[in-house]
Design brief:
With about 475 residues, this protein is an alpha+beta fold. It has 2 domains: about 100 residues, OB fold (Dihydrolipoamide Acetyltransferase, E2P), CATH 2.40.50.140; about 300 residues, Bira Bifunctional Protein, Domain 2 (BirA Bifunctional Protein, domain 2, 2-Layer Sandwich). The protein contains 15 helices and 16 strands. The strands form 3 sheets. It has an 8-stranded mixed β-sheet with strand order 6-10-11-16-15-14-13-12. The protein has a 5-stranded mixed barrel with strand order 1-2-3-5-4. A 3-stranded antiparallel β-sheet has the order 7-9-8, with no helix packed on it. A hairpin with a 3-residue loop joins strand 1 and strand 2. The longest helix has 23 residues. The structure holds 4-amino-1,4-dioxobutan-2-aminium adenosine-5'-monophosphate and magnesium ion (MG).
Length: about 475
């Protein structure tokens, strides 16, 4: 007999045919009711045991966390909370879980803090919250591929090990096969990377953009979806050292079309979650409502999780230039009353997350796309505007998250790019191939990067980014 997934069982009509299910015990009440979960859905299957018909020694092994196999037939449930349940005829213990040991873990049936769950990240997917988050994460990844594939984009695999710094920010993890205790040195006493595996300095990629640009210039429309790495020492609820990024890149596309693409794409993916992940979203929504009960009224969200998602679908993202935003911020209450940590004094200031959140959550009250930033606070590859001081950059800002997307129209003019690289100290010998692209049939093109974990955070309502990726990597933390 094959076992059936619980998600399918719960959609099945009662019948006298026996079925088999396998899963992990969530609870065993009154020596009679087993709540079984196999990960296929947030819902447990109730398995009803007539304990008179089973050995005491077997019943003792039906403990929280144990893996079991159950055979029985599906009946209409007598109790509340489920339509069907299994009337058990056979039980097999597949893997025991010692109750004394379980007590010390997050599997024990009580409330655990998110911090404690992180310490046992190898077990946390067995909790309702992480099961729901990880199923959603998987569905969202699928929706992303579906969106691009349906719209004529090709999936491009950018290299993970690179010799260049795509963002020019120097926040890279080195990749080396040299003996750290005894590295070869050059005549100046510096480590000689010519002796290293790749015969040059290499690092983990911070972004697949530059390579994606080269492919957009041949395939037209491409996207990457892969891990990216940043050695920035940011200990926040929105930063990871290893995160997944989606980077579409489109030939013959300017910044306005790039904004349209970002908005359409994000809305598609959120709609997909609403359509396909109802049970998990409902659970996460209730979880948030529960959490909010302990907060003062003023700090509670006005919208439930799904209301917030629908709100994003139903409203246009507000498009605002950096210059307009600075004017707004300068005049804003928190700026005038010196409530911001960083007071906005003049045009040119870099926006901190407090400013972004003010714009999105207080002023506009909807997702915002900021564009045309000062050239000197943005990356070297962004297209210079005719004013000579701003670039065709865009950031999409989301409530509760801040920046979810960063992108731009790219500088397609060889001379302008070359000069910009000189001024900003970007090594041209390393990026000769990127410059080359502007010599052979250059064209207007644009793209952006969406931080996948920030999207998952938004859709699931999880407040810390460490709780939307299976094994988070952050400063001082590469456990598991
Ligand atoms: O704004 P960023 O740095 O842009 C780029 O990397 C461009 N090359 C993208 C492009 O145009 N193709 O990063 C893009 C997005 C951010 O908006 C944010 O959502 C996410 O990636 N991100 C991070 N997510 C988690 N942890 C970090 N440390 C992140 N850094 C950026
Ligand atoms: Mg950015």
């Amino acid at each position: 007999m094959q076992h059936t997934e619980i998600i399918k069982v719960l959609r099945t009509e009662p019948s006298l045919h026996e079925i088999m299910v396998r899963g992990w015990v969530r609870s065993f009440r009154s020596n009679r009711f087993i709540a079984l979960n196999d990960g296929s859905t947030i819902h447990n299957l109730q398995c009803v045991v007539d304990f008179e018909n089973f050995e005491e020694s077997l019943l003792k092994k039906i403990t929280v966390g144990a893996a079991i196999e159950v055979v029985g037939h599906l009946v209409e449930s007598q109790g509340q909370g489920q339509a069907v349940e299994i009337q058990v005829s056979k039980i097999k213990i597949l893997g025991e879980a010692d109750p004394e040991e379980v007590k010390r873990t997050i599997l024990s049936p009580k409330r655990h803090s998110m911090e404690f769950l992180r310490e046992q990240a190898h077990l946390r997917v067995r909790t309702n919250t992480f099961g729901a988050v990880m199923r959603l994460r998987s569905k969202l990844a699928f929706a992303i591929h579906e969106y691009f594939q349906k719209n004529g984009f090709y999936y491009m695999h950018a290299p993970i090990i690179t010799g260049s710094d795509a963002e020019g920010a120097g926040e890279m993890f080195r990749v080396s096969a040299l003996d750290p205790k005894n590295p070869p040195l050059d005549e100046n006493g510096n480590i000689d990377y010519k002796e290293d595996f790749f015969e040059k300095e290499t690092n983990l990629t911070v972004s697949g953009q530059l390579e994606a640009e080269t492919y957009a210039m041949g395939l037209g429309k491409v996207y990457t979806f892969g891990p990216t790495f940043r050695a920035e020492n940011s200990n926040t609820s929105r930063h990871l050292a290893e995160f997944w990024m989606i980077e579409p890149e489109v030939a013959f596309c300017d910044l306005d079309s790039n904004m349209d693409l970002a908005e359409d794409f994000i809305k598609y993916v959120i709609q997909f979650a609403l359509d396909n992940c109802q049970d998990d979203l409902e659970f996460l929504e209730n979880r948030l409502l529960d959490e909010e009960k302990n907060k003062p009224q003023a700090e509670r969200n006005e919208m439930s999780l799904r209301e917030k998602l629908r709100f994003v679908l139903e409203n246009n993202f507000k498009r605002v230039s950096y210059t307009e935003a600075i004017e707004l911020l300068k005049r804003s209450k928190p700026n005038q009353k010196k409530k911001f940590k960083y007071i906005i004094e003049e045009w040119g200031a870099d926006l901190q997350s407090e400013h972004e959140r003010y714009l999105v959550e207080k002023h506009f009250n909807c997702p915002v796309i900021l564009f045309d930033y000062p050239a000197n606070i943005k990356s070297f590859y962004m297209r210079l505007n005719d004013d000579g001081k701003t670039v065709r950059a865009m950031d999409v800002l989301f409530p509760g998250i801040g920046e979810i997307v960063g992108g731009s129209q790219r500088e397609e003019r060889y001379e302008v790019l070359k000069q910009k690289m000189e001024v900003m100290g970007i090594p041209q010998d390393e990026l000769y191939w990127y410059l080359d692209l502007r010599k052979f049939g250059t064209a207007v093109h644009s793209g952006f990067g969406l931080g996948f974990e920030r999207l998952v955070q938004f859709v699931t309502g999880m407040s810390n980014i460490r709780d939307v990726i299976p094994y988070p990597r952050t400063p001082g933390n590469a456990e598991f």
